Amino acid sequence: MLFLQNQIVLITGASSGIGAACATVFASAGAKLILAARRQERLQELADSLVEKYHSTSEQIHLLQLDVRDRSAVESAISSLPPAWSEIDILINNAGLSRGLDKLHEGEFADWEEMIDTNIKGLLYLTRYVVPGMVSRDRGHVINIGSIAGYQTYPGGNVYCGTKAAVRAISEGLKQDLLGTSVKVSSVDPGMVETEFSEVRFHGNTERANQVYQGVTPLTAADVADVVFFCATRPSHVNINQVILMPVDQASTILVNRRR
């Protein structure tokens, strides 16, 4: 798509799942990608596969080994981007995770802090350091990956749902704050998506993670990336504020039809 040719797209949490799927769909449209994640080797593998698949060059991809929870690291990463990469057109705040399904009064403090620091503060840090440039250029788009959990709480989801409710509120607030500029804000909020999400939630317990999707055809990371891509490619006067998407077998956070 000519609209995205050589546009600079920064994707956090790009080493797997929805982030990697977004990288793929934007690479296919000729965008220049800044891929950020903690796992440098996974980023490099993704970059190599994109170069091979789309016959692009390594000059089209810039890698950032970055933990979004580290404010000073985020500031340094954005401020030290090479001039050719500094004018970010699209920011996809995808980095996020869930930890555990404990009742609130039995929760692990470390799990809470990791979710809050990643899902809320990391998103805020990237937004704070990237959006001023968009405002000064009077163009740009922030796309936040939220969740149905930001709309509906479920048992054991307490803090995670709270962080995604915060993403929803932050997205709405940012849209209001940017009124009068040409900068867009979208929130893409999926239900069940089969990625590493559940494995991370259960601290690597693959068997328990697989049970989450048993009997259900969940969304894929590519399904979500398609919606992100749709939001990013609307005409300049159109802003997609929020999109909620779920698999057909899911009606809410707790109502799921499991086909035996």
Automatic annotation (TrEMBL):
The keyword Oxidoreductase applies. It holds the Pfam family adh_short. It comes from the Bacteria. Its EC number is 1.1.1.276. The keyword Ribonucleoprotein does not apply. Gene3D superfamilies: NAD(P)-binding Rossmann-like Domain. Keywords: Oxidoreductase. InterPro entries: NAD(P)-bd_dom_sf, SDR_fam. One of its GO terms (molecular function) is serine 3-dehydrogenase activity. Belongs to the short-chain dehydrogenases/reductases (SDR) family. This is Serine 3-dehydrogenase. It comes from Fischerella thermalis JSC-11.
